[in-house]
Amino acid sequence: MSRSLETSGVEVPVAGGVLAAFRLGQRPDGAPTMLAIHGILSNSRAWLAVARALGGRASLVALDLRGRGRSNELPPPYGIDVHVEDALATLDALGLEQAVLAGHSLGAYIAANVAVSHPGRVRAVVLVDGGLAIPGTEHLDPQAATASLLGPALARLKMTFETREKYHEWWRGHPAFAGGAIADHDLVAFADHDLVGAAPPLRPGISEAAVRADAAGLREAAEAAPRLDAPATLLVAPRGLLDDPNPMQPLAVARAWAEQRPAQRHLIAVPDVNHYTITMGAQGAAAVADAIAGYCG
Predict the structure, then answer these.
(1) Cis geometry, peptide bond prior to residue 77 (ω within 30 degrees of 0)
(2) How far is Cα 175 from Cα 274, in angstroms, rounded to an integer?
(3) Partners of 17 in beta bridges
(4) What does DSSP assign to residue 105?
(5) Who has the most CB within 10 Å: 178, 213, 249, 256?
């Protein structure tokens, strides 16, 4: 598949308005449609590399979570339970009684909660560097946990940029992006989908209230993955949000989860990726696409 993907929008009626979802790439004849759910400070374009790596094995539809991307004007309430309902509404809008769900970071918690609360709607779950309890936040109050987990990332929401190129440059200098693993055309698409306003200035369109509400619910949301009955694969990155050596999902924790039900749970440690490049870089995207395709045959 060429680097440019055809993108078509899907409007999803939800509480408070319309949620935006996008089919990334063409829908090959006979290929099943699966639903991809992005992370807490991300948007649907984080799945471009995965959609490309899937080729004709599945058709990927990625939603913009409430408070992000083209869904950024949807009103509260926010939180995991609302995202679960929005994901189910997306399946309904696509005419899917059952589907494979993939979730990255916050999206992994949402996907696991959909599968636990509505098992008949989920064929299998692919959790990407998320879904399990995050070490170091267990005993913190929700706001302290949010600051500990997201810290500098939240500061971006208050920044403004004179041009789109300035925002592209900001992302190119981000520690997780700076190594060049993410194709620049995907970086530009991801960044542009995040911006709102008329230059100058432009600003990220993510709702800080949505981010804080979602982060506050992660501890409770992490209770779903250990209860999963659906077939599930968890892919983990050895490096964290800033390309640091502190993974979001430590290998030992992930291994213990997989070993609870070895017949239905699989663990894949993706080498040489961080929390972003596990979906947005070619190597990570290939691993995620293979895991998705394994459930779509």
Answers:
(1) yes
(2) 10
(3) 14
(4) T
(5) 249
How many angstroms separate the CA atoms of 136 and 134, rounded?
6
Amino acid symbol at 147: A
Tokens, residue 145: 């946990």
Q: What are the pLDDT digits (tens) for 157-190?
A: 999 999 999 999 999 999 999 888 999 999 999 9
Angle at 237 between CA 222 and CA 53, to 5 degrees: 105
Q: Report the SS3 class of residue 132.
A: coil
Separation CA 22–CA 280 (nearest Å): 17
For the chain, domains (ranges, CATH) are: 7-140+206-296 (3.40.50.1820)
Is residue 226 within 8 A of residue 115, CB to CB? The reply is no
Does pLDDT of 145 surpass 50? Answer: yes
β pairing state of 59-63 and 195-196: unpaired
What gap in Å lies between CA 245 and CA 243, rounded to an integer? 7
Angstrom distance (rounded) from CA 269 to CA 251: 7
Cis status, amide bond into 200, omega within 30 of 0: yes
Nearest-angstrom CA–CA distance, 12 and 44: 14
| pLDDT band at residue 142 under the 50/70/90 scheme | low
Asked whether the beta carbons of 136 and 249 are under 8 A apart, the reply is: no
Burial class (CB in 10 A: 0-12, 13-18, 19+), 30: exposed
**pLDDT (tens digit per residue) in 70-125:** 999 999 999 999 999 999 999 999 999 999 999 999 999 999 999 999 999 999 99
| Cis peptide bond upstream of 175, omega within 30 | no
Residue among 281, 276, 283 at smallest CA distance from 268: 283
